[in-house]
Amino acid sequence: MQKLDWEDLRYFAAVARGGSISAAARELGVNHSTVLRRIDSLEQSLGVRLFERLQSGYVMTGAGETLRGRLGPIEEEIGSAQREVGGLDEELRGSIRLTTTDTLAHGLLMPYLHRFQEAHPAVQLQLVVNNSFLNLTQREADMALRPSNTPPANLVGRKVGALATALYASHAYLRRADRDGIARDDWAAHRWVAPDESLSHLAAAQWLAERVQPSQVAVRTDSLVTMVDAARNGMGVAPLLCMLADRERALEQLAPPDPRFHTQLWVLSHRDLRNVARIKALSQFLYDALRQDAHVFPA
Q1: CATH number of the domain located at residue range(s) 165-261 in this protein
Q2: What CATH code would you report for 6-88?
Q3: How many CB atoms lie within 10 A of CB 132?
């Protein structure tokens, strides 16, 4: 006996249910000859006739009845498995591994994730805080919420808006600067809290590099959250995200947000996951919610 082809068995079951080749062809969405070829293939593999070909239709032989009886429970199990596994991507359940920056996790994201999880308690959220893009292609994460003016081309998603950046300093630092006779807009004379090389792509970092000597930089860091801490403690003037700095009573905004410093905000996923129900639901939820956030500007 040759090795059975499971696809041949599926065609056999369709003929057994419909009682004819044409009925099976309609059910399976194939042509008449395809069904005939599959039945012939199965009979050759088994070495028995499964149907008597009568003018009134196809009638199962004893061997056919035996095979149908054996296939019944298997068909039911396969159908149940298909419904259950397929349903996992239709229902809002399962885990979502979301990567974002410390800035967004600390200053923006948590209340919205809490609301989403309350609405969909069967979804488990895993938050991966990382200030560089993880490789979604290798499934280091399922989704990303990222501030970037140049998101990776291999990801799909939507631009939510933009985050504003402005110059801030602590009241204590400004009092010292006043005593030293440094004008508030004399940027070259101030001490600075600056992004390090890993954030050199930011427009604010490039602006600083053009106007401030390296000797005037008191501290550099790869974290915008840490920049807020450093500025709050009087280490210098800093270009800070408004959504973080505006809540700090110790900080004062020295100039209105410069549109050149805006950073686009994106909700992204790998293209193979974009139609998974839970991924689609969280993506849409974050997009809708963040577009209404006071700290996200249209872009």
Answers
A1: 3.40.190.10
A2: 1.10.10.10
A3: 10
| Highest mean pLDDT: which range of 73-77, 94-98, 172-176 | 172-176
Rounded Cα distance, 49 and 39, in Å: 9
CATH topology of domain 94-162+263-297: D-Maltodextrin-Binding Protein; domain 2 (3.40.190)
Question: pLDDT tens-digit profile of 274-287?
Answer: 888 899 999 999 99
Amino acid letter, 157: G
**144: phi > 0 → left, psi -120 to 50 → alpha, else beta; which?**
beta
The whole-number pLDDT of residue 74 equals 74
Distance CA 95, CA 142 (A): 9
Burial class for 111, CB neighbours closer than 10 Å (0-12, 13-18, 19+): exposed
Return the domain boundaries, the chain: 6-88, 94-162+263-297, 165-261
Per-residue tokens: 33:
């000859």
**For residue range 176-199, what is the model confidence (pLDDT) as tens digits?**
999 999 999 999 999 999 999 988
Distances (CA, A) of 111 to 67, 187, 238: 58, 36, 27
pTM for the predicted model, two decimal places:
0.65
Instruction: Supply the pLDDT for residue 91.
Output: 61
